[in-house]
Design brief:
Blueprint lengths: L4 H12 L6 H34 L3 H13 L3 H10 L3 H9 L16 H7 L8 H10 L5 E10 H14 L4 E6 L6 H15 L3 E7 L11 H6 L4 E4 L19 E4 L3 E5 L17 E2 L1 E6 L3 H16 L18 E8 L7 H12 L3 E5 L7 H12 L3 E7 L5 H15 L4 E5 L3 E2 L3 E4 L3 E5 L5 H6 L2 E7 L1 H17 L1 E3 L1 H5 L3 H12 L5
Parallel strand pairs: 2-3, 3-4, 7-13, 10-11, 11-12
Antiparallel strand pairs: 1-8, 1-9, 2-5, 5-6, 6-8, 9-16, 10-14, 12-17, 14-15, 15-16
Helix pairs in contact: 1-2, 2-3, 2-4, 3-4, 7-12, 8-9, 12-13, 14-18
């Protein structure tokens, strides 16, 4: 066939230029040339796909795996890469934002000067000014003083406070959540939002499309009957695109009148109300915020709402001038596949690296990557007390197996590990040197750090950190320690099970 190719090509050329050639001859020529054309297209397409992966994938292992798949599955591998391996979310978000990279509220610039923060901190904590400088480089929002942060433990405290704030709303309510169940809690929130709308309050509700499916029927019907304007973030299969299956909006935000905000780890479901003795109780933390940092919550909601609906939220109804309300220096940290930097990854690494005395980690899902494991171990080797508090029994057994496969890696270098008793604890918290706090929606797993849209708040304030440290220590006293010898004593089948689960960590 190789020998025939030149003559076939000549025949086609002759036909194009008006030479004698029959229909049968044309078909024969096309059949002869077709395999070469397909092969050439496959090579070109695969080359472009693998070059894109090599140039734009930050993780070399990911780039290598995609490049291998592209060439092992001719044409099909390249198609899969352009369907699943390319981040289209950032491009779409930037197109919607137009010339504006991010929402900005009036009166929040410039960022807090380092010397101002240094004066606020006690002498033993002033080394954390360098952490603030690091975060300045990877986020778009400034560190702002004058904030109040109140701890709300479980839904028994958090939900009444949130409903009370909605009931008092005069101008606007924005709510973003991952799960919004149709149970007694979800219906109470839907009705409160409907009541606010009927009072003339502008209400916007953003729910992750996957999060609407945790209860059936969904809460959407109730919201429609209440006349609440809502939107679903990234349906799992928009127009047949598989790219958004794993890209979920995991943020939990409530802002009332642009002045009072709530954030943390709680979804809207009755399971968080332990006093009601739900079938599946879940402990968690929520935080009420007042002061300039509330604008950061509203800005992130406005960006997500614009991304989802195309509507821009502007004016004092949404972004009123904000005055100081407390002593906490705080900053909102938005992270997701639409950001330039891995904001939370860098923040976690910087915080653990800056620690001099204590690091306290609380997360429901502990699947750290190699850099985070190294940071925790280095801190312990420097003499820092590193305590990691995890649920003794996860709501996701497979994830717990994978988590257990990581335990020895932190225990062998001096970190301490604790397993809390039931009910399942969904709290997320990082405390450093009894001065710096990170609170919000992010788990220590690849899904939160690479795929999900997350929101957290970093806080510099000894009083807040001491309050949360006391709460952490109380939970720690109720937990049981896990030693390296206990981990090593697991049976071979258990260790193999956990190891196999760990191999699937990137997709858990």
């Amino acid at each position: 066939m190789l020998a025939e190719f030149p003559s076939c090509a000549q025949g086609l050329i002759g036909y194009v230029w008006g030479g004698p050639m029959t229909t049968a001859g044309i078909l024969d020529a096309l059949l002869d040339v077709g395999p070469y054309a397909l092969a050439g297209f496959t090579v070109l397409f695969s080359t472009l796909a693998s070059a894109h992966a090599i140039l734009f994938k930050r993780d070399p292992r990911s780039a290598l795996l995609w490049a291998g798949l592209i060439w092992m599955l001719p044409l099909g591998g390249a198609v899969l890469y352009f369907m699943l391996g390319v981040n289209r979310i950032r491009r779409r978000a930037l197109l919607l934002r137009g010339e504006e990279d991010h929402y900005r509220s009036p009166g929040l610039e410039p960022a807090c000067a380092p010397e101002t923060l240094e004066q606020h901190l006690p002498p033993e904590s002033r080394h954390l000014v360098t952490l603030a400088a690091l975060v300045d480089e990877v986020v778009v929002r400034p560190l702002v003083p004058g904030n109040q942060v109140d701890l709300l433990i479980d839904g028994d405290a958090a939900f009444p406070a949130m409903l009370e704030a909605i009931a008092a709303a005069r101008h606007s309510v924005t709510l973003s959540t991952y799960i919004f169940d149709r149970d007694e809690v979800g219906i109470a929130f839907a009705r409160a939002l409907g009541d606010a709308r009927r009072r003339g309050v502008q209400v916007r509700v953003l729910i992750d499309a996957t999060g609407t499916r945790y209860s059936w029927p969904s809460i959407l019907g109730v919201l429609r009957r209440e006349g609440v304007r809502y939107a679903r973030f990234l349906p799992a299969f928009p127009r047949g695109q598989l790219v958004s299956i794993n890209l979920r909006n995991h943020r939990k935000l409530l802002v009332v009148d642009g002045r009072e905000g709530f954030t943390g780890g709680m979804n809207l479901r009755v399971g968080h109300c332990l006093a009601r003795k739900p079938a599946h109780p879940v402990k968690d933390l929520q935080f009420r915020l007042r002061g300039p940092v509330v604008a950061h919550l509203q800005e992130v909601f406005a960006e997500d709402w614009l991304f989802t609906t195309g509507e821009r939220l502007r004016g004092e109804r949404w972004f009123p001038p904000l005055e100081g309300a407390g002593a906490v220096f705080a900053r909102g940290l938005a992270d997701g596949p639409d950001e330039d930097f891995e904001v939370l990854q860098w923040t976690l690494l910087g915080a653990v690296g800056a620690a001099r005395s204590t690091v306290r980690v609380m997360t429901p899902y502990f699947l750290p990557n190699a850099p985070l494991i190294a940071a925790l171990n280095l801190a312990a080797l420097r003499g820092v007390s590193v305590d990691i508090l995890l649920p003794g029994r996860s709501n996701l057994p497979f994830v717990q197996w994978a988590s257990a496969a990581h335990w020895w890696q932190v225990l062998e270098r001096g970190c301490r590990l604790w397993l809390s008793p039931p009910p399942f604890d969904h709290s997320k918290l990082l405390l450093v040197d009894d001065c710096w706090t990170l609170l919000g929606s992010t788990n220590w797993d690849p899904r939160s750090l690479r795929l999900n849209f997350e929101f957290n708040v970093e806080c510099y304030d000894p009083a807040l950190a001491r309050t949360l440290a006391a709460w952490f220590e109380e939970r720690q006293r109720q937990a049981r320690p896990i030693t390296l010898s206990q981990v090593d004593a697991r049976s071979l089948p258990v260790r193999l099970r956990d190891g196999v689960a760990r191999l699937l960590t990137p997709i858990l």
